[in-house]
Amino acid sequence: MTIFFSLLVLAICIILVHLLIRYRLHFLPESVAVVSLGILMGAVIKVIEFKKLANWKEEEMFRPNMFFLLLLPPIIFESGYSLHKGNFFQNIGSITLFAVFGTAISAFVVGGGIYFLGQADVISKLNMTDSFAFGSLISAVDPVATIAIFNALHVDPVLNMLVFGESILNDAVSIVLTNTAEGLTRKNMSDVSGWQTFLQALGYFLKMFFGSAALGTLTGLISALVLKHIDLRKTPSLEFGMMIIFAYLPYGLAEGISLSGIMAILFSGIVMSHYTHHNLSPVTQVLMQQTLRTVAFLCETCVFAFLGLSIFSFPHKFEISFVIWCIVLVLFGRAVNIFPLSYLLNFFRDHKITPKMMFIMWFSGLRGAIPYALSLHLDLEPMEKRQLIGTTTISIVLFTILLLGGSTMPLIRFADIRDARARRRNKKDVNLSKTEKMGNTVESEHLSELTEEEYEAHYVRRQDLKGFLWLDAKYLNPFFTRRLTQEDLHHGRIQMKTLTNKWYEEVRQGPSGSEDDEQELL
Prior knowledge:
By secondary structure, this protein is mostly helical. The protein is 75% helix and 0% strand. The protein has a domain at 65-186 and 197-420: Na+/H+ antiporter like fold, CATH 1.20.1530. The two termini are 48 Å apart.
């Protein structure tokens, strides 16, 4: 019954997203709509249970293990796989600064604020490790809402990548920080000084971060070599199956040796997209891209729907003062993260981050699926403390998604008046629908068909490549990727053309096919 209920919820959410796209309600982010639908469905189920018509309490419960094993890995892998690698590697220093140091700053501000407010009897008391665990989990921002905002603003591609890359890495860093705090909670730290506790936490974090990143990178590089030297291009089904195995492999291996599977699968996705993807046939390239998008969309939609349902499905402990102070600390921690680091980066960047963009970056730090699932995964005692953390997290997530996410369109029109007028002249709407944009495009950089000579002319002989980009173009890319011959290029185009013609012939032979339809297509 649980599987049926989950599929039913997903089907209703897909219909909702379709209606948003069909009636051009582009001003409403899909995450806001799905969460609102989840709240409505939760209320209806509660009424049904109250009337004793049915009991779906077990079905509407969200299990954290299901999230971490089934739902989160495809979301994280797709995020890494869909990155624009050129802009990402050009801005890797800035992205790392925001993702690692910025997230740590936010976690310490929120965790420290909660701890000291508790000691002052302003809010409920939490010990230091529990406060830091909550500060870490609530510092994970939602990349889906963030990228929708920046796509709608038509911001500079470098700034877009800066924020999107930070939000993706931020999720993995937040999970590692939370696991670090949980690890300290399980140990008996009563006889250890504060300085020793900090050093232990730092060592655990560095091991998890760099160990998991190295494992994911190594797995991605091995997959590139395997698919370079084992030619599966003429059997796309085997090729696609191998890609799916390598996609999930680093997660299982990392979790098995007590590292972070999420961090490993993120870096594996980035590396496989940069190298392995270009060893695939054109058919598998398109199939891989669209499959990952579809699975990630279903997983994200499922989490946001159950987030709305959780308002009615979980026992809550709501303290208004705790929630308000946590919201204040979350907003303040985001500000302490964004503004100082942006001013610092402007000393070293050619593309400056303007104050207006800093404000939008701060405003777009919405919370989403990961804080919600992490709060349910925390093993805190007593149960009242766990319920307090869970309820507060749900309140903050709903506050940021519904209030801040719902205020996205007014902010865009207020902060970018000139661009809005230009869009009105062009009769184009600002579009916050990620599904519509992703479904209408195929990433051109994921369909590159360069021969040896073309690659040499495009990349190796360029004089503007520096640092890692030069090393990658000169040595790494030729070693890990297959350079196409004219015969390979010809075979790939024939394969795509054959599939297209076969599909077109089946359409023409269908019951609705007609000569008028054919002329209309032509």
